[in-house]
DNA sequence: TGTAAACTCTATACTTGGTATAGAGTCAAG
DNA sequence: CTTGACTCTATACCAAGTATAGAGTTTACA
């Protein structure tokens, strides 16, 4: 199978497939006489696995670790589980951050309706307030 | 004020300040005879404003737009509000995505405890299942 | 006054996960 | 035999910085 077919079957772009090869997520395939990459079904499986991991927002490094561990069936899957645990925690943390951000933005946005002049814009005033607050605290310091 | 002091006062790194200058978020300051950047208090204010926007996860481009709009006090603040609205929506969407991801990961993780061999790892089996499902659907197609 | 530490300058490379391009070679159909 | 579709490598680009080298400047202290 040539790279274009593999791209069609996986839904990944040709460049992405070559990129994964450079990152050693996918081992370099055989080449035809004319130097075209020639893939087996194993490569397809591997790429789908990688795609699934990426859909879970795992980094290339995390995927690399999982693939490496997966390669020897007798080893413990502890590191795979640790990777997933850390990943879950990272996402939990990110959600918390974004929730807080969202609240701030929504309350900021509530301070302005649409047809004001810049001078009167509630949103900009909110942003400036924080700057002013900072300056005041700095004045205390100096 | 030299760049180091400005960095201290804003909590930004020197490189970041120079980076914002290159990106035209911060106008190029006066230079001393020895070519050192020399900043006014306005630059401090501007940087704090930018920092605040970044803390709200706004992109440089978004901040650029807001700063530009802010520069003429008689214009309408509609575009500022539109920027914030879109940003709020982006974040809402990202939170939704991450929530779904989180659920998938947690349920996947529940399929394995820590001291299994790779062969038996529930997490890896979950990941493979999705690959298998894909292959089956492909088999129908061809 | 000398010198060493601390500061600043520019330019460049690196990060992540790809995407996009140029310029060359290859293959299949008409 | 040529046109179009495909592939190859190498390189540059994106965001939002961070890190470095190598040079020049200023400040503190003896």
Q: Strands, helices and their partners?
A:
2 copies of one chain form a homodimer.
Chain A: H1 3-10, H2 14-22, E1 30-31, E2 37-38, H3 41-55, H4 60-71, H5 78-109, H6 122-141
Antiparallel strand pairs in A: 1-2
The structure holds a DNA duplex (30 and 30 nucleotides).
Describe the protein's architecture and organization:
The structure is a homodimer of 142-residue chains. The first copy, chain A, is elongated, with a radius of gyration of 25 Å. The mean pLDDT of chain A is 89. With 142 residues, chain A is mainly α. The first copy, chain A, has 6 helices and 2 strands. A two-stranded antiparallel ribbon of chain A has the order 1-2. Helix content of chain A is 68%, strand content 3%. At the A-B interface, helix 3, helix 4, helix 5 and helix 6 of A face helix 3, helix 4, helix 5 and helix 6 of B. Chain B binds a DNA duplex (30 and 30 nucleotides) through residues 2-4, 13-16, 18-19, 23, 32, 34-37, 54, 59-61.
Q: Which keywords apply here?
A:
two-stranded antiparallel ribbon, Multidrug-efflux Transporter Regulator, Chain: A, Domain 2, DNA-binding, MerR_fam (chains A, B), 142 residues, mainly alpha, elongated, homodimer, Cd(II)/Pb(II)-responsive transcriptional regulator (chains A, B)
Q: What is the structural class of chain A?
A: mainly alpha
- Any idea what the CATH architecture of one domain in chain A is? Orthogonal Bundle
N to C succession of SSEs of chain A: HHEEHHHH
> In which order are the strands of the major sheet of chain A placed?
1-2
CATH topology of one domain in chain A: Multidrug-efflux Transporter Regulator, Chain: A, Domain 2
The separation of the N and C termini of chain A measures 70 Å
């Amino acid at each position: 199978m040539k790279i274009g077919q593999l791209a069609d079957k996986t839904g990944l772009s040709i460049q992405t497939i070559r990129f994964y090869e450079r990152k050693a997520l996918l081992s370099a395939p055989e080449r035809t006489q004319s130097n075209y990459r020639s893939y087996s079904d194993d490569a397809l499986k591997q790429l789908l696995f990688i795609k699934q991991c990426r859909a879970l927002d795992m980094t290339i490094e995390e995927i690399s670790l999982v693939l490496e561990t997966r390669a020897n069936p007798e080893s413990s899957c502890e590191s795979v589980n640790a990777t997933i645990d850390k990943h879950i925690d990272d996402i939990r943390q990110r959600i918390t951050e974004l929730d807080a951000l969202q609240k701030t933005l929504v309350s900021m946005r509530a301070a302005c309706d649409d047809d004001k002049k810049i001078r009167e814009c509630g949103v900009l005033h909110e942003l400036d307030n924080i700057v002013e607050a900072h300056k005041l605290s700095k004045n205390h310091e100096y």
